[in-house]
TrEMBL record:
Signal peptide positions on this chain: none
Stated name of the protein: Thioredoxin domain-containing protein
Domain of life: Bacteria
Subcellular locations according to the entry: Cell envelope
Amino acid sequence: MKVANVLESNKIIDYKNQKLILLDFWATWCGPCIPATEQLEVLQKQYANELFMISITDEQKNAVQKYLKKRPIDLMVVTDQDSYTFSRYNVISRPYAVLFTTEGDIIWKGHPGDLTDKKINVYLKKYRGNKSKKLSSFMKVVKQETVKLDDINTYEIEKVSGEATHYEDFYKEDEKFIEFRGDLSVLMAKLLNIATADMIADFTDFKVSFKANRQYYTSKNEELLNEVLNKYHLRMEKESQSEQVNELKVVNSNMLWRNDQINWSEGSDENSSNFLITTDRIEADNLTIRELANLLSDVKGISFVYNGKDENLYDWNLHYLHDNLFREDLEDTFGIKVQQKVMKITKIRIKKE
């Protein structure tokens, strides 16, 4: 494996004579990664003398450091070198883990939650006689080169195999690039800045891999959308339908959090948007109320709308899982009421020409 930065050493155990090495693939935006990594920390303590764990993400160093200040990880934390390790082991979703021998042979891979005591003991019994090696023989730290904004074309997109999921398998955003892998309709929703639920595709199994120059993505949004539609011979149609929605109504604007309450954009565009979805909370940096409504629609699976005119950026930290707690948190913390009503909603339908 190649890494760009070692951000944290393993706080549980030093690398000595362990016979197995586990790579924990994660991301700061990945809610399910939190309990998965916590479970691995327990296993690291339990098998400290036999197993050494490394948590690896392909995000920017500054973003990860900001995250670790809020949510420390006790395993060794490293950042990937130009997504080399993620690509080598074909990591397209996370949390994900790969278990190696000290020779570098893969003996298990999958969701970290599936790595049981029974499996670990079977592998230890089989490979306990292997010779120990230096960690540097397995992990190479490579100097990270600065990437210029014009080092790639304005954007790259290609259709990839795999069943479409109506959500992204992978999404990464930093000060240089936007990267996405998932259902084409989800990418269209992102380009239009609408909820995924408001995008209807008249086809299935259309998954794409997408990478764009961030500057182009933000300044040429409509142009990019049209180019993607033309490339795949698609067209969009608007249609209205009545449905019950949850409208976000600001009743006390003084309670809204200014966009300096959470700051995950250090070292990049100070107004870039980032969010973290855990098992029960949303933490977001620099989202408008309308963008929050779109995010809530995707996370909760029901329609949320905002019909106000406030397009300022705000920070958010709220419960979303249980509806009563969600409504109380939104009103008591941010001065926003949720009102159910039936109204006409504009949906975007994508059709093949």
